[in-house]
Amino acid sequence: MAQVELEDVQIAYEDHIAVDGVSLSLEVGEVHVLLGQSGSGKSTILRALAGFERVRKGELRIGGRTVDGDVFAAPEDRPVGLVFQDYALFPHMSVGQNVAFGVGRGAPIIDELLELIGLAHRRDAMPGELSGGEQQRVALARALAREPEVLLFDEPFSNLDPELRADLRRQTFELVRDRGLTTLLVTHSAEEAMDVADRISVLRSGKLLQTGMARTLYQQPSTIEVASGLGPANVLEAEVSAGVVRCALGEVELGRVSGDPRGEGILVIRPEDIVVARGSGAVRIVRERFLGDRVFREIAVGGRVLMSSRPAWEPDAQDRAIQVRRAHWIPLNRGA
Ligand SMILES: Nc1ncnc2c1ncn2[C@@H]1O[C@H](COP(=O)(O)OP(=O)(O)OP(=O)(O)O)[C@@H](O)[C@H]1O
């Protein structure tokens, strides 16, 4: 059953259309990520689901009930919990009061939630006395206290340092999944999106480009923007002739190319799928970066500079040639 539905939604700020024709459906218990660059419309969608923006066209439904469109449900009448980037705790209220806000002081769920976020012993502390990670846990507990059906997260981990961010992200999504809460997370980090999402929707300039599982979007992007939104990608013009795909790298066997290669198109090749192997070819390494587990290289070949990466433990070949392990085909009209 769909828990959250957007049907052909348009949202505008005066004459600026921020979200344009977006349709999306989240299953009950799904963790869904809106991924896109700054200004792509992610937060606007989240705010509209929370009831802080109105849709101009289309409809929003939560739990099968229309909350915006022909009718409008006020924010407090929607079964949603919202967690922002900047915690937004009430500074003059203690941790316990912040969590209990809007649900009543004595509610047993408050103790349970404080226990859950590991801050039961800080119940009387003020937000200013907590670290950023602790404050964000309080904000999460506060959102959960209303027992929402849907959780909305707007870049909730971006103000935290990287190690803490990864830890808190893991804890948060364990908790969300244990409770079976339908969740929509906004982020511009592909790594974060792939880490937590059941499915990802990639947005650009207010339009939805592609929805799918991380693996599908990474390996079989429908456009160049989706390809580069999920991670580094080499993009090469190519054409199919006589049963092989030809590009600046030479020939790639058809069997190594997913999609539907025919005529002219674009090949998307991930750095790890460009293998610098033993052989004779005009391959020059322009730049090399050692990243611990892998070595990332820029290599000049066929008049182009391409990105290639290999596991750091792999021995380097002396006489070099390029092999393409895997590539994906985007038809020309969709790649533009
Ligand atoms: N209150 C507002 N008034 C006018 N325009 C706005 C308002 N809020 C957002 N916009 C515009 O709408 C578009 C979408 O903004 P939105 O905040 O949804 O993007 P975003 O993808 O969440 O970006 P970010 O990652 O920077 O938060 C942008 O062009 C932005 O400038």
Average pLDDT reading: 90
Main beta-sheet annotation: 6 strands, mixed
Straight-line distance between termini = 36 Å
Shape: globular
Rg over CA atoms: 24 Å
How would you spell out the order of helices and strands?
Answer: EEEHEEEHHHEHEHEEHHEEEEEEEEEEEH
Bound molecules: adenosine-5'-triphosphate
Tell me the CATH architecture of the largest domain. Answer: 3-Layer(aba) Sandwich
Strand ordering within the main sheet: 6-7-8-3-9-10
Proportion of residues in β-strands: 35-45%
Q: Report the total helices.
A: 9
What is the name of the CATH topology of the largest domain? Rossmann fold
CATH superfamily of the largest domain: P-loop containing nucleotide triphosphate hydrolases
Which runs of at least 5 residues are low in confidence (pLDDT < 50)?
A: none
User: What is the name of the CATH class of the largest domain?
Assistant: Alpha Beta
Which features would summarize this protein structure in a list?
336 residues, alpha+beta, Rossmann fold, 6-stranded mixed beta sheet, 24% helix, 38% strand, cell membrane, ABC transporter ATP-binding protein, ABC-type ferric iron transporter activity
Describe this structure in words.
The protein contains nine helices and 21 strands. It folds into two domains: 2-79 and 148-226, P-loop containing nucleotide triphosphate hydrolases (Rossmann fold); 233-335, no CATH class. A hairpin with a 2-residue loop joins strand 9 (199-204) and strand 10 (207-212). The protein is globular. A six-stranded mixed sheet has the order 6-7-8-3-9-10, with helices on both faces. A six-stranded mixed sheet has the order 13-12-11-15-21-14. A four-stranded antiparallel sheet has the order 2-1-4-5, with helices on one face. 24% of the residues lie in helices and 38% in strands. The mean pLDDT is 90. The protein is of the alpha+beta class. It has helices at 42-50, 95-100, 108-116, 132-145, 162-178, 190-196, 214-219, 224-230, 332-335; strands at 2-13, 16-27, 31-35, 57-62, 65-68, 80-83, 150-154, 182-187, 199-204, 207-212, 234-241, 244-247, 250-253, 257-258, 264-269, 274-278, 284-290, 294-301, 304-311, 320-324, 327-331. The protein binds adenosine-5'-triphosphate. Adenosine-5'-triphosphate binds next to strand 2 and helix 1. It comes from Bradymonas sediminis. It holds the Pfam family ABC_tran. This is ABC transporter ATP-binding protein. Keywords: ATP-binding, Cell membrane, Ion transport, Iron, Iron transport, Membrane, Nucleotide-binding, Transport. GO terms for molecular function: ABC-type ferric iron transporter activity; ATP binding; ATP hydrolysis activity.
